[in-house]
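step 3/5: co-fold with adenosine-5'-diphosphate
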Amino acid sequence: MKTKFLQIGNFLRNNKQFIYSIALMVVIPSVIIFNTWLFSQSFKDTVDQSLRDKAVGISQSINISLADSLDSPEKLQKYVTNWKSYASNAKLIDEKYENDVTALDIFYRDNENFKLVASFDEDKVGQSYDSMAYVIAWNSNWPSAQKIIDHSNNNYYWLVVSPLTDSLGEKKALLVITLSANAMDAVLSVALTRSYLVLIFSVIVIILLLLANSRLFEHAMLYNKIKEIDAMKDDFISMASHELRTPVTVIRGYVTMLIEDAQKLSIKEEALQYLSVIKTSTERLSNLIEDLLNVSRIEQGRMKIDSHPTDAWIMVESVTNQFMVQAKEKNIILSCTKEAELKSIIDIDKDRFEQVLINIIGNAIKYTPSGTVEVKVKSKDNSFFVMVKDSGIGMTAKEREHLFEKFYRVRNAKTDAIVGTGLGLWITRQIIELMKGTISVDSMEGVGSLFTLEFPLSKTEDKAV
Ligand code: ADP
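step 4/5: write tokens
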């Protein structure tokens, strides 16, 4: 468990973008929630203000309409009874506010009290009331607006109390109206529901992102682990090959010495045969070690390529000649030719280019039971080509697809007896590409193969090394 946490800790330290994305995932919903809250608050304030203004506006319009009727309670009651239809006809109020004017009362001052002379609720007409708000509005001669919250149902309304004056400006009555916020509340709750929906949708998207990211997180951890194991494997191969190389070289040296000095050392014919078997096996082992070392050098980016302008034709000819004896032993006619007009200076590392040629020409001889191996060189445009064509076992199109993969060997009756590691062509292609060249193959099963190497001609005017 502890190591898991340590792993996660290390991973986060090396992959800061995960911390950023997780932080973003927390910050984005928080910002949306805060924004929604801020919006609802400011919306509420705006609604409140406009409701208050509306209530005050209604009282003023009533005052104007009643200026000449204030002395007659009957006229006042008639007006109040019909107010809703007057109001909507005269477009004094919006239809949606009509039902929100829940009370419209007109009082006369009656000694210390206020006597109701006209109301929506006609049964209450004639009753006397005593209210601080009424007194303040009456005495100050100025309308007062008060926000009243009904805690039983959480509704609120505006209570507007304003003195009514006749056309001469004399204060005659007191108007009290209440405007409920129900309609506005409905509008507000629709707006809030919408913004909460947006919030929920965003949070769902973010949670999905988080889930995807956690999977990504697992994959990244796994990827790092695989990379670590791969590096460990490379280190192991590199170390093991180095450690093996010295004893194998010593064995090979002594076996060669024993074979060469067989007579001097009075080694019997039978023992000499055993020694030559040991020598062949040691050579195979040595080749395998060399291949493994090359693979680990390439994979760890340690393969040094020291390119210089070089006359490639000379090298091709020389390497082909090295194989003449081997070819003759197998009854293979090995030839090496060049085109008349040849440009053959290319930028290559001599040792590595030799390694490439040995592999390609060596394979052509190895996989040709008898027949011909033709090595041709030519130059065209800005390229130099080496073509190695054999009349050997060839291969199928499917086999050709895997040819340059690590450890790939064609396995059939014809290749059974031929030894190899399946690393040669992979190493060859990597080296060729490091020297800016390409390798391609054309082959037919039972007919033969053609390997073509292409390198850009050297641009430098230097003399070839
Ligand atoms: P190996 O050590 O097996 O020769 P290589 O990587 O050099 O490894 O070659 C991979 C495989 O490609 C060989 O096992 C062989 O089957 C096939 N191959 C390579 N060169 C030729 C060729 N000239 N003709 C037919 N098959 C070939």
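step 5/5: annotate
The radius of gyration is 50 Å.
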